[in-house]
């Protein structure tokens, strides 16, 4: 991987010319949105791309369609994809919001958790009395980060999975992308969980069917760009320089700089709201979006 | 229990005239502080007082000694008591900050966790290289509340305890007291854990040696007063009316009102800082208070 | 004034039996809401009630109508009353959010300002290009509090009024009420400005046509109750004791305790959102509520 | 100006080879700190550098001296320079914290204001009784930003200056620098006020002796880097390419991207604390740093 990115779509773009077998990429337009679906089906393709076998859906909102209608469209489209990848409509779902709530670009996961409607504890007579007996059981947790807790994110989630035994985990995380243009307006949804070493903080343990024993659907939004990657990306816009040349040129100083736009607070706030609404919508299809908006506040 | 309070000291005061066997209460003055120690040694006393057998230490800072010196005195005194009640100086400690970070008077626990120096993950060569091989392993977690997570606080803590196997849990929580005067300037430290049904939120599961399998030291600060209790307390100041009379008079309307002072943000901020420093000091006796202050920020 | 309250409605209730001339009180029901209008028309009535001559409108939302529909009804009803009391639909309006943003129950004013759509700087070609030439000019400021700034709130507002010369000031502030039941679900709108010595913080300068030279519409939400008042209110519920008896009984200890409910963060957040939407709606009648909701976020 | 920067030190470096008359640059080492002083004395130099005639002091903390001792050294050094540039030790000082408190990299000014000890309102007998009659009068205000208030920052400050008539204004603002390395660890103090068009938000009015009628000392910390500048800076590290070449290459896409590091929350928190302590120390030389730290919290 030349450029640091967690987006399968960006990795696939870079390797497109190689025509790797075992990768299918498809674009679809829904209203103002672009939905890209990448299927990685062979171990060889997984190796080359640097992403596990599985499906990666990327929903992109056009930057200038900043209005109410497209906001709802976006939520419905994300909800559909989440529902499709979860592929089970009854069991308990554990939503895990990864990241550090004190570092804005890494706070996406914990902020999404604040908007998730937890229902696992509303049971039996109480649920019936409140007219809520049709709700799917949902639990939600923000496990914190290793530096704050002294416990790997994966350990916390795994401990809780063992005890409450969900049928599926939905893991939300901030990602790194190749380009500043994508920060906050792109959402990646995948059925492969979260791989070690990816993400904003770069030190995380695997969260996957392999490590947890249940399917893991991951939802990520790019919120940072690596400094070197940014320089290279700007550079390539004008002049076709090879990845290797750029890397060699910038690596020594740019390597550890993760940058984020000035308006990161707004980016995170909007993205967290949209994703928590989409997850709620996917998990409680019998509730209207209006009711979900009202309950999520 | 006539008045709603989580403070053993207030419960003992109310029953003092009854001369219950199995209770010893002792006051001590250290600089500007008052330290009260209550030992409950018989099951009968535990029943009457409404608190499990064990030791309850209450550290009170005089309201008008609002200066730097007494702040340090307070931290050192609390640290000593915490250390004494933990009664083990080597094993892994899990600090759990209970409560809801979005409700200020209930946010004490989560805010304390932000100041805890987690060290469990600093091991082996890394620790030696950083000169940190002498540190006691500490993990820290804010498990959230049932309404937000769908999982009982006790379940989350218990899941993690099973996996990381600490030798002791330190649980921090906001409490209810009888009097507004005590809010924010009183700290109760006990070796009995946290009992069900106490606390600000009133719906919590037990966190104790019984439920977790390891000793639980609890640290609590009163941050709310029940509306009825407040009215009764103000009333009794002037005229000796019996508890029962007051209760009968106020219960119907005042029962569910938990009130907190206007300056609750400041109260929580100061208390959380003092308690996280005291816990760090108790767990890392080889570090100076200055170093702890610097690392906790 | 026996009980400490900033609500004209509560003061009028207390004096109703006296049949003071120069006071008219009227109740109206609109959907789920109750709207009370009090006209104080004589200096004698103003003296007895402790409020300046003018109109006081109190909008009350029933506590159990916690749904989307009544939220919109509430906003529209408040917007209508604000519009009626401003009584001018073209000139520049300065919205001033009074209070201390660091003390939750006093943060209502500053939080409302965060939601106000400021338009004074969108002028000429820019406004036309953006299709915004029909907007009323609005400026918005949170002047802070004396203890933080060293400048009286009234001085800051007055300095700015002199320079930008609005045709009207809308001042938003947190209030004290007599009863915990009213906190957060009652809004008082008046055309008399803000009187000295009222409000949560108790140390403020007048903000009125008299002091600023332009009409001042004030909007307030009760967020605190005085400790003595609370005790008295609970007491009177059961047993008819005179105001004087209660005062005499509680004053010495309860005088300075301002209390607020445990859920004050939620109360402030919801009230601030509703009021900023209502002000925006009142000032920009050509925009739909949906557009206002979208722009206010 | 090829690179976008608000630091006189960076501008001077770029033009050093030209040997412009009317510029004197001097470096000094104090403990762990480097203090650079630039005097711009001629109009020609001011034009070439793009900064008004006056003095610019830049205090740089070495990145790896992250300990208590150097924190105090830094505060004392900044306080000395602020005091020297204010050059008057009695009159009322108005501290103005510029920027948008809702956008983290732009929130430096408002956050500094939260730590300023305002004293203008502590007068006469009250001051004497509290032993505070020796304090210099200080007022502090966060005027907000045009987009939120509809009023130019310069208008708000100017309105208040007219009314309270300070002998000096201290204006605090977030800056743009050329290099990510400087973000958060460099402070520029100048006696020339704030020039139009500089700063993070790029749309501000002049704040200077010229516009306000009183001397303006400005204090700024770089918190953002322009995307193009960043790319160019990384590029130049390896290969000497001219400013013009870099600009031509990147401008079209990178122009409007202001980037900030992932840890911006921590950078702002630490910088705001250090600067508010330094200002308090400069304005109240009779108070000890310990007392100032205690009062500023």
TrEMBL record, chains A, B, C, D:
One Gene Ontology molecular-function label: metalloendopeptidase activity
A biological process from GO: spore germination
Signal peptide segment: none
Pfam families: Peptidase_A25
E.C. code: 3.4.24.78
Propeptide, residue positions: 1-6
Classification via InterPro entries: Pept_HybD-like_dom_sf, Peptidase_A25
Catalysis: reaction(s): Endopeptidase action with P4 Glu or Asp, P1 preferably Glu > Asp, P1' hydrophobic and P2' Ala
Domain of life, per lineage: Bacteria
Main enzyme class: hydrolase
Keywords tagged on the record: Hydrolase, Protease, Zymogen
Post-translational modification: Autoproteolytically processed. The inactive tetrameric zymogen termed p46 autoprocesses to a smaller form termed p41, which is active only during spore germination.
Family: Belongs to the peptidase A25 family.
Function noted in UniProt: Initiates the rapid degradation of small, acid-soluble proteins during spore germination.
Quaternary context: Homotetramer.
Protein name: Germination protease
Organism: Hydrogenoanaerobacterium saccharovorans
